[in-house]
Design a protein that fits this description.
The chain has helices at residues 3-10, 26-50, 53-79, 93-122, 129-150, 157-186, 193-220, 230-238, 273-288, and strands at 243-255, 258-267, 292-299. It is mainly alpha-helical and 301 residues long. The model is unreliable at 1-13 and 17-24 (pLDDT under 50).
């Protein structure tokens, strides 16, 4: 394919979506990667020394978070390539795939924390509460700073995924902070607070992970865009003047925030197709927010 034909194939068309990924603030992601990676090592060493499951769990969470943020940074860079000869819909789904893998990694961390917490319920080991309190407090401050930086770009699905990880880290830091305070001021009698608060954090993180899986799976499985009902699209097309039947209708999500529609329309022989097509495109955009519309006219039986 020569360059002129390539431009005609992948260049600007009727849709405003150019099949490239949404840009994110790469500087914010880079800073987040550095901060979370550095402090996760501090928490891991501190948690091992203080014998705190809540602190070790938060460190493991932050390590996974740091890796996912780095993955998000790389995925967003790749997704900006737009459409090419091998990927006619662009590379934006790389971000969605990265978000889905982030969710799987989160499930692994949660499963490990649950296992360790159950073992500690029966016989809680002694924990250095003061050390846990100080380290968790510093971690909470770092997580708040990272979350604030990422929250300025919440339209991008992969940044949202990274932000969910950071929120989970914040909860982990709060849990470790509370565990450290209870053990420091209440003594070994409150050592069970360490695994209890770890489990509480797991439950909150599971809820956020489920939302992440739901949103990314919708795109990966070509689901109907959120807020759009498949039957409503068919009814809207059927209501157009001169349209007798709608079939082979497909409505799916190409990339986060960008849906598409294809359909065959059986028309009366006296219908002005160009007028019907323009009316249909305007209707799909106005009613469903979808501007990537491909319709095939058919006449007769």
């Amino acid at each position: 394919m020569n360059e002129n034909n390539k431009y005609a194939a992948h260049g600007a068309g009727d849709s405003a979506h150019d099949h490239s990924g949404q840009k994110v603030k790469t500087s914010a992601l880079a800073v987040a990667v550095g901060l979370t990676a550095l402090f996760s090592a501090v928490e891991l060493i501190g948690g091992w020394w203080a014998n705190s499951l809540a602190l070790i769990a938060d460190a493991g969470h932050m390590i996974t978070d740091s890796a996912s943020l780095l993955f998000a940074l790389i995925a967003n860079w790749l997704s900006r390539k737009g459409a090419d000869d091998d990927h006619s819909y662009g590379h934006a789904r790389i971000e969605v795939l990265a978000a889905f893998l982030n969710g799987i990694a989160m499930l692994g961390v949660v499963a490990w924390i649950f296992k360790e917490a159950i073992e500690r319920f029966a016989n809680p080991p002694p924990v250095a509460g003061q050390s846990v309190f100080i380290i968790a407090g510093i971690g909470l401050c770092i997580n708040i700073a990272v979350a604030w930086s990422l929250s300025r770009d919440r339209e991008n699905v992969n940044t949202r995924a990274a932000l969910l990880h950071v929120f989970g880290d914040m909860l982990g830091s709060v849990a470790a902070l509370l565990a450290g305070a209870l053990i420091y001021f209440g003594g070994d009698a409150f050592a069970v607070a360490d695994p209890i608060l770890s489990v509480l954090v797991c439950l909150l993180v599971l809820h956020a992970t489920w939302e992440l899986f739901r949103d990314s799976a919708r795109v990966l499985l070509d689901g109907v865009p959120e807020g759009v009902r498949y039957d409503d699209v068919g009814v809207a097309l059927q209501s157009l003047e001169g349209v007798e039947e709608v079939h082979d209708l497909h409505v799916w999500t190409m990339a986060p925030g960008h849906g598409a529609i294809t359909a065959h329309l059986r028309l009366r022989k006296d219908v002005d197709w160009q007028n019907t097509l323009q009316t249909a495109r305007a209707l799909m955009m106005e009613k469903f927010g979808i501007d990537h519309v491909t319709l095939q006219p058919e006449y007769g039986d």
